[in-house]
Amino acid sequence: IKDLYAPLLIIQSKKDVVVDPYGAEWIIKKCSSKIKELIKLERSEHPIMVDIEKLKVFEESYKFIKRMTNN
Fold first, then answer.
1. Residues of the chain with pLDDT under 70
2. Which of 28, 43, 48, 63 is 20 to 30 A from residue 54's alpha carbon, by CA?
3. Is 54 helix (H, G, I), strand (E, B) or coil?
4. CA 71 to CA 69: how far, in whole Å?
């Protein structure tokens, strides 16, 4: 993780029962990237891309990519 320098976006649900949400916080703290964002979803469960907040996942991903490509 300390060798991770690329821009990083992590989107994690607080209600995820498969992946411990602490893992996302740990990655954000330990990675060396200067550009890193952690977005926490409130209502979704594990499959965030098909759950109730899927539009937020897509919107946040799109915004992040746009910022990284200066578009």
1. none
2. 28
3. helix
4. 5
Q: Report yes or no: 59 and 8 within 8 Å, Cβ to Cβ.
A: no
In this structure, which amino acid lies at residue 11?
A: I
- One-character DSSP codes across 14-32: TT-SSS-THHHHHHHHH--
Contact between 53 and 24 under an 8 Å Cβ cutoff? The reply is no
Distance between CA atoms of residues 10 and 24, nearest Å: 7
The pTM for the full model equals: 0.90
DSSP H/E element including 37: strand 36-41
pLDDT value of residue 46: 86
What stretch of H or E contains 68?
helix 54-68
- Total residue count of the chain as it appears in this document: 71
CA–CA dist 16, 45 (Å, integer): 5
